[in-house]
Specification:
Elements lengths: L5 H4 L3 E6 L4 E16 L2 E10 L6 E5 L3 E3 L7
Antiparallel strand pairs: 1-2, 1-5, 2-3, 3-4
Length: 74
């Protein structure tokens, strides 16, 4: 997902794939996004809410998520 798609997908289902956490194709709700700054510049992080437990959230890279009905442009 890129920065322009954040507003369109807020409070909607998204799909997370993260090899480091052994998560592939898991459904979450995009609850928000955070912009942070490090020595190299700015980067975004997504805040994902668990579908089964609304009190549980996961913070991940924005690049690790995609829209639920995502179709790559050709």
């Amino acid at each position: 997902m890129i920065e322009r798609e954040i507003k369109r997908n807020l409070n909607k289902r998204v799909i997370l794939t993260n090899e480091r956490l052994y998560i592939e194709g898991a459904d979450f709700i995009l609850a928000g996004a955070v912009i942070r700054r490090n020595g190299e510049g700015f980067f975004y992080q997504a805040i994902l809410q668990d579908l089964n437990n609304s009190n549980s959230v996961l913070v991940c890279k924005l690049e690790d998520i995609k829209e639920e009905n995502y179709e790559p442009k050709t």
